[in-house]
Amino acid sequence: MNSYERYEDTFSITSYEADLYGKLSLYSLFNRFQDLAGIHAAHLQVGYDLLREAKLAWVLSRIKVQIHSLPHWGDTVRLATWPKGIERLFALRDFCMTNEKGEILVAATSAWLLVDIEKGRPRRLETLPIDLQFPHAAHAIQDPLNKIQIPEGLVQVFEKPIWLSDIDTNWHVNNAQYIKWITDCFSQDQYHSRRMTSVQINYLEETLLGDTVVLFKTPEDISANEYFLEGVSRTKGSEVFQAHVTWE
Question: Which domains, from first to last, does the chain contain?
Answer without folding.
Answer: 7-127 (3.10.129.10), 155-247 (3.10.129.10)
